[in-house]
Amino acid sequence: MSATTAAPRDRLLETAATLFYAEGIKGVGVDRILAEAKVTRATMYRHFPGKEALVVAYLEREDAVIRGYFEVAGAAGGSSRNLLERVIEGIAEDARRYHRRGCPFINAAAEYPDVDGEVRAVIDRHRTWFRDTLAGVCKAADVPRPGQVAAALVLLRDAALVGVYLDGDRVTTTFRRTARQLAGLAT
Questions:
Q1: How far is CA 150 from CA 45, 127, 130, 183, in A?
Q2: Is the CB of residue 168 less than 8 Å from the CB of residue 113?
Q3: Got the DSSP string for 59-127?
Q4: Which of 14, 52, 149, 161 has the CB geometry, 3.0–4.6 Å to 103, for a possible disulfide?
Q5: Which of 57-61, 94-98, 115-119, 149-153 bottoms out in mean pLDDT, i.e. has the lowest?
Q6: Cβ distance 155 to 103 under 8 Å?
Q7: Contact 111, 25 (CB under 8 A)
Q8: Contacts of 12 (CB under 8 A, 6+ apart)
Q9: 5 and 43 in contact (C-beta within 8 Å)?
Q10: Contact 164/96 with Cβ under 8 angstroms?
Q11: Domain annotation for the chain: domains and CATH numbers
């Protein structure tokens, strides 16, 4: 499906996601999104009451993609330790291939500092889910102190996503090695 034949809501969201991630949320105006998505202002407001709602949808989309990575890793089968290894590898590959300009959630938090706003609520829900899911994976893999290890893996992921933006792919090698050591997977 081409960009002009996709549903208007999908075009808006895809265009906004691309621009927000590449250039920052506050730096991209609604008029530019509308022009590049080839939709009218009325169409946008039919789907999103304002720019912040579009930002929320963008972050929810990012959250869904990351949850999908976990589903694919879990569906691959194998032991719980294999799953933990796939999750670590998936985080490294995500940083290397898709999120080369940092974490979309950290980037959005920097632009939306109001901790009581809807944007930060989406970010908080994602981070809580991510940390809890990692803790569950660590617990199933019999990693000692799974909650602490999960919290450390979240911190390592944050660092890897920022690090790839600043220092390139070599960061993912360090992430993999450190995450495996932390999770007791290093040989």
A1: 40, 11, 9, 9
A2: no
A3: HHHHHHHHHHHHHHHHHT-S-HHHHHHHHHHHHHHHHHHT-TT--HHHHHHHH---TTSHHHHHHHHHH
A4: 161
A5: 94-98
A6: no
A7: yes
A8: 33, 34, 37, 39, 43, 44, 47, 48, 54
A9: no
A10: yes
A11: 1-48 (1.10.10.60), 58-183 (1.10.357.10)
Longest dimension (CA), the chain: 58
Q: What single letter denotes the amino acid at residue 73?
A: A
CA dist 164 and 58 (Å) reads: 22
Beta strands in 7-163 (DSSP E): none
DSSP string across 8-37 = HHHHHHHHHHHHHHHH-STTS-HHHHHHHH
Residue 174 identity (one-letter amino acid)? T
Cβ atoms of 35 and 9 closer than 8 Å: no
Residue position matching structure tokens 């290890």: 149
pLDDT at 3 over 60: no
Question: Which pLDDT score is estimated for 4?
Answer: 54
Contact 36, 16 (CB under 8 A): no
State the distance between the two ends of the chain, measured CA to CA, in whole angstroms: 46
Q: Is the pTM of this model over 0.85?
A: yes
The DSSP code for 185 is: -
